[in-house]
Amino acid sequence: MIRRASLLISSLLLVSTAVPTSAQVAVRGKRVYTMAGPMIENGVVVVRDGKVAAVGPAASTPIPDGFKVLEAAVVTPGLIDAHSTVGLSGIYNIPHDQDQLEHSAPIQPELRAIDAYNPHEKLVEWVRDFGITTIHTGHAPGELISGQTLIAKTWGNTVADATIVDAATVAATLSPMAEKSEKGKSPGTRGKMMAMLRAELIKAQEYATKMEKTEPDKKPDRSLELDALVRVLKGELPMMITANRAQDIDSALRLANEFHIRIILDSGAESYLMIDQLKAANVPVIIHPTMTRAFSDFANMSFETASKLHKAGIPVAMQSGYESYVPKARVVLFEAAIAAANGLTFDEALATITIDAAKVLGVDKRVGSLEVGKDGDVAFFDGDPFEYTTHCTGVIINGQVVSDKPH
Amino acid sequence: MINKFAVLRREFLAALPAIFIAMVSASAIAEDKPSANKTLAFIGAKIIPIVGDEIPKGTLIISGDKIVAVGAMDQVAVPDNAERIDVVGRVLMPGLVDTHNHIGGIGGADTSAPIQPDIRIYDSLNPLDAGFKRALAGGLTTLNIMPGSGHLLSGQTVYVKVRKADVIEDMFIRDADGRPTGGMKMANGTNSRSDAPFPGSRAKSVSLVREKYVKAQEYREKIAKAAGDVNKMPARDIGLDGLLEVLDGKRVVHHHTHRADDIMSVIRIAQEFKFRVVLHHVSEAWQVADEIAKANVPCSVIVIDSPGGKLEASQMSLETGAVLERAGVLVAFHTDDWITDSRVFMRSAALAVRAGMTRAGALKALTINGAKMLDLQGRVGSLEPGKDADFVILDGDPLSVYGHVMQTWVEGKKMFDRTDPKDYLYAVGGFGAGNEQVPYFCCFDGEGGR
Q1: Å from A178 to nearest chain B CA?
Q2: Angle at CA B438, nearest 5°, toward B437 and B439?
Q3: What's A276's domain CATH number?
Q4: How many domains does chain A have?
Q5: Same domain, yes or no, for B125 and B24?
Q6: Which residues from B are below 8 Å from A327, CB to CB?
Q7: How many CA atoms lie within 13 A of B128 on its CB side?
Q8: Residue A238 phi, psi dihedral angles, 5° rounding
Q9: According to a count of CB atoms within 10 Å of the terminal CB, is the N or C end of chain A lower?
Q10: Do residue B251 and residue B370 come from a single domain?
């Protein structure tokens, strides 16, 4: 599954990140967690021209002359938030800075996160200061199909500077949060949500067939909406489906099975009830923030879900999710920390915000671990990164030091 | 069940048939007596008494619902009749005091008016709400349950212990006269602004509040002038009765406020009407810490993971606790449950330490300082002889993410035990842990949450 996801990404439109004139930099760490092998005591990470050039024990890993040298107690790969809306949902929570949901129609896969992402958003800086260097961000749960998500670095002057993958998933919601309460508006029920999704995917199938088989002058008019779904049907993009109740997760699997589409389960509050089914369907889970509020769709959430899924062999990535009020954003490091205190080991919890997240998102060739040739994204800490009282003391993105104050 | 009868006994004794009284009294006494006699010695834990230094290896002795001794193992004699409980390797600290939360399915003031002091939040609470279970799992034993912040004044709050309760009365913390204790919830800034009859601006907000307190002052004068003459008494107004308790200092105002100028407005009004106030949330208190210190007003701080969500919280800083502490302000934290989950309340203190607050100060802000803000420092908030036997036993440091609450005791009764599967379900969540209630909460649109 994971391998397939990685291969797939190579076929996607990759927007090369414009590497800023990066300082040549090396980080010395008492403990270096590369996430590609055992922890290295007294390790060194050398970043040259924005990429990891060497990783290893200090004794056998020389730091080239002229490199800026930083020191930390603990060094990790730059952290990955596997699902956020930061950059589309802004700090002030006023119409001016809320672009995470378009309510004009329930199905709008043509909406692209790259057209809404604000790299200068304060919340991007806020999470970056805690070591988060890559975010999978975009349209929030709340409409049946809300748009295409984006994978970006938390650094860059323009969205093109920041982007790793400009269309990562098509985001869908199978939850009462996508239902309309007004009389006469659809979808109003679970049954209607599935009916609408199925009809839409069937429409996209027919559109794809006509596009391929019809003579050039008889092709249907191009539809941005259906173009996006055809990419899902062809397996170029996964559909990320937000579902929490076991029955809604089951519906998501039913949809994937009918249309042979690749899905990522998002949120999954009751996914611990669906372990066998998720495993059989090879579906990875981007689990809800560990501290998500326990009510409504999330009434049966558990701090231990990440642990239970991981133990069953299901790929798990951690997310900060979407927040509609206060706080306006969560910090995925803090959410992984609570998972580390509730069943996951330290390494497993760290993997949910580094290498495992990269694999689920299909960007593990570039980020998620400290390996030669990968992006020079590094986070460092003055202690156990999960401890409440530890500080993130520095962040490097693409070889550039973007934070050097304790947070 | 028995507690309920005890309350009935206190409040309605005279109205009950004699034979029923005898039966109820007997059962109430029967339940109360054994625990009153029982002496338990918790031996060997690291004890954080809050008042006084941390004790590396200590003993806590409780008898019935009270603490009788606390100190180093070699200095506290364990009575012969005490049941000895080995807590070596554990950490023991007072039950946490949460100065501000919305547990229990609150339904306070409605949208009919911006100022509703007649509302008693306890008239809306469900003692069976799963939120109380989660609170115990987080080590919370004393709560100030408040109505929301969508009004200038949304009603009377209630101070409770998280006791085993069939009815909400079982949870009340009662004063010497047997009356439930609580404060008064007020708010300024943007949450309490709306279309008329709600205020549309800050100046109007203050004006409406002042008008109401002036009315309460006049009401008080009329009552004084009547000098007990029933014929001269003003018509009874239960809202103004509530405000009289505020003016008389019997009911503390718990005031939602974020922006620095809003904080100063609260202080201005409190000084004009001479009422006692605790500032809550205080996102921008770091900008006016010296002014708050000078006014001698305590602050209950919310610690959240990012600023924003609304304009008035956009300047929120994790350093607020540290800045206020350095300025000499009395600081507590609160969960605002469910803005933050009470199961991770200790995290609020730990994040404040991360941002520069002292460890001792942050631990006080979870316990004794909150007790002071609720006028309960004589009963809860520290481990001292004579205080209520409310305490938490942890398997690690309270400021560590890896520390879990193993047991929570309220008035000498074990109310939470992490090794009990039923309690564990509430501690970590899982199927059946939830409840279906959607909390009433000002300004939360629920988008993405429902």
Answers
A1: 8
A2: 105
A3: 3.20.20.140
A4: 1
A5: no
A6: 304-309
A7: 5
A8: -80, 155
A9: N
A10: yes
Q: Where are the beta strands (DSSP E) in B264-336?
A: 277-281, 299-302, 331-334
CB-based contacts of B261, cutoff 8 Å, min separation 6: B202
Do B161 and B12 share a structural domain? no
Q: Are residues B14 and B109 in the same domain?
A: no
CB within 8 A of B73, min separation 6: which ones? B43, B44, B57, B58, B59
Q: Chain A interface, mutation test: which of B401, B442, B444, B445, most A Cβ atoms within 10 Å?
A: B401
Task: Please check whether residues B253 and B327 belong to one and the same domain.
Answer: yes
Domain boundary among B362, B381, B400: B381
Whether B374 is in a domain gets the answer yes
Q: What is the pLDDT of residues B360-385, one digit of tens each?
A: 999 999 999 999 999 999 999 999 99
Do B7 and B113 reside in the same domain of the chain?
A: no
Burial (Cβ within 10 Å: 0-12, 13-18, ≥19) of residue A102: middle
SS3 A150: strand
| Backbone φ and ψ of B20, nearest 5° | -70, -40
Domain count of chain B?
2
**Does the residue B80 lie in any domain?**
no
Per the structure, the complete domain to which residue A263 belongs is given by 2-403
The token pair at B262 is 């809003």
Q: Chain A partners of B436 at a C-beta cutoff of 8 Å?
A: 296, 299
Nearest to B279 by CA among B337, B341, B333: B333
- Closest C-alpha among A33, A42, A125, A135 to residue A77: A33
Q: Which CATH number characterizes residue B221's domain?
A: 3.20.20.140
Question: Rounded to a whole number, what is the distance in Å from the CA of B164 to chain A's nearest CA?
Answer: 22
Question: Smallest Cα–Cα separation from B377: which of B103, B181, B239?
Answer: B181
Q: Which amino acid is at A61?
A: T
Task: Give the residue, B423 or B14, on which the prediction is more confident.
Answer: B423
Q: Is residue B89 part of a domain?
A: no
- The Cα–Cα gap between B10 and A10 comes to 75
**Model pLDDT for residues B279-304, shown as the tens digit of each residue:** 999 999 999 999 999 999 999 999 99
Query: Can you give the residue range of the structural domain that contains B24?
Result: 1-36
CA A218, distance to chain mean position in Å, is: 40
Least confident of A9-23, A27-41, A81-95, B312-326: A9-23
